[in-house]
Specification:
Elements lengths: L11 E5 L2 E2 L9 E5 L4 E5 L5 E5 L5 E8 L4 H15 L4 E7 L5 E11 L11 E8 L3 E3 L6
Antiparallel strand pairs: 1-2, 1-7, 3-6, 4-5, 6-9, 7-8, 8-9, 8-10
Length: 143
Amino acid sequence: MTIYKNFDPGRISLTWNGVLIQGVGPSTFVKCVRNEDAFKQVVGAQGDVVDVRNRNRSGVVTFTILDASPSNDFLTVLALQDEITGLAVGALMIKDLNGTTLVKCANARIKKFPDVEFGADGGTNEWAIQCAELEFFVGGSAV
């Protein structure tokens, strides 16, 4: 049987510190990546194999927003506060409202300011948020 589903990029919700990030960029606008593999395989000299569980669940969420997005102001203020106080840490959540995918982190902070570029066609800013424990549920489409 053929699977037929819909996808609407406008139904991807990205919030950090309780604020909805607005004005996402074109193409891939959010990427969630764990820093390390869940298991490391160790192979002995005689071919014996041991899978070692890695407890590191940290990761990085990178998202791209348009230069004109008001979310740049919000993110910049928090990044500046964090440089001074080290206290701009908050919850991050990415939810696919088309389906069941959910990515979240209770303790997330801005990793670095985006590179600043200007061009004739306008542009985007790529923000990276580092997460102490990045939790995933990669699901399918409900619609």
